[in-house]
Amino acid sequence: MLHRKLNLHHKLSRWNFIKTGLLISALAVCFLIDRTYFFYPPSLAPAWNNVWVDSIGLMAGLILILCGVFDIRVQLIIKVGLGVSVAFLTVLLVAESFHIVGAGYFRFHPAIVFEIYAIINLMQIAYEYDPQD
């Protein structure tokens, strides 16, 4: 109940959808271009560098961009876009954590900062999103 009272003055920001979608799409395009980005552990490298994983992230980013630009309020589309985006970013953070912890290799700091920023934006969108509207 308190959530609804606090949410009366906060309409869902289209700008949050756009900037988060652009960030996720940019990350996915970067990973599509660099096919050898993930290398540790060697048995999982082909799965993490797969084109399909990056394509899913690109599609999730495009869904968020379209929801923001065209002010789409279809609940299923918004929920799928948010859910797939969070899953994509979680997979990226886990893969990069394997590199940092397992291999002691830390070259991913710009990507990790962008991913954490995107997760914070997704949390803000999820907090502001009221499916009853």
TrEMBL record:
Q: Which UniProt keywords apply?
A: Membrane, Transmembrane, Transmembrane helix
Annotated membrane-spanning segments are: 21-40, 52-70, 82-102, 108-127
Keyword presence, Transmembrane helix:
yes
The protein, known as: Uncharacterized protein
